[in-house]
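ok so i was messing around last nite and threw this chain in just to see what happens. nothing serious, just curious
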Amino acid sequence: QVQLVESGGGLVQAGGSVRLSCAASTRAFSSLVMGWFRQAPGKEREVVAAVSRSGTRTNYIDSVKGRFTISRDNAKNTVYLQMDSLKPEDTAVYFCACQFSGLVSYVSSLLSQYNYWGQGTQVTVSS
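result:
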């Protein structure tokens, strides 16, 4: 069982920045592929970014490329999402999630492959 706790959400003006953190309660953090997802009101949950166990491989959805950066610190059992140049359409509840993988460089953007989820943190971008 893995528990994930997100933090760092809030209200920010368009063009601003926010950094989300997700702390995992497991000694096997380095065995986890980590992902950030978001869900806006009335919309389906979608992947935002994902990072491999080693941190060397990442995936992003097109709408956030060049603005968001996912990273991880395996020594701190934490994954981050740095969000810059925020837009009102980035407003959503952001969730982190994880899945175990035997491959160091594997990264997945498939929501169905993630087994453990945090409770989410709200990010609101005002225009």
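not much to say yet. Residues 8 and 20 are 5 Å apart (CA to CA).
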